[in-house]
Hints:
The chain is of the alpha+beta class and 169 residues long. The protein has six helices and four strands; from the N terminus they run αααβαββαβα. The longest helix is centred in the C-terminal third of the chain and has 15 residues, at 118-132. Residues 160-169 have low confidence and may be disordered.
Amino acid sequence: MNELDRRLIAEIQCGLPLVSRPYARIGARLGLSEDEVLARIRALQENGAIKRFGVIVRHHELGYHANAMVVWDVADADVHAIGAQMSALDYVTLCYRRPRQLPDWPYNLFCMIHGQDRDSVLANIAELIARCHLENIPYQVLFSRRRFKQCGARYAPSTDAGPLQRMGT
């Protein structure tokens, strides 16, 4: 990884600029074209320097005030298929497998559902159970009580305070 790659990572790690063409804006700051920025990000992903590149959605600010992690005790042979079915539903924002922690924690499939209120989340869970035929699968619904700040990984010293500061630049 060269110095330009380090500068690029420092630019993107706190979020993309909130403009219609964020990669062009980043390129202008680094002396690169939009296409060069995208190519370098792809190369950094391919060589493993960037493990994940995604969106952190601030659900609360979008009007989603209830969220629940639903944990399922699914037969190991069925986890992949059921997880794929769950992930296809619009209201399932996250779905992943974790090892059971027996004897206290028998759950191995987790999914997150966000909603405007608890009733809408519970309605979505009922629909998920019916659509995925999970009526006989043990589960628990764990509603969040606190909200924590989400942020991505930090790889390099930041060039500024993040995307909110960049909006006007």
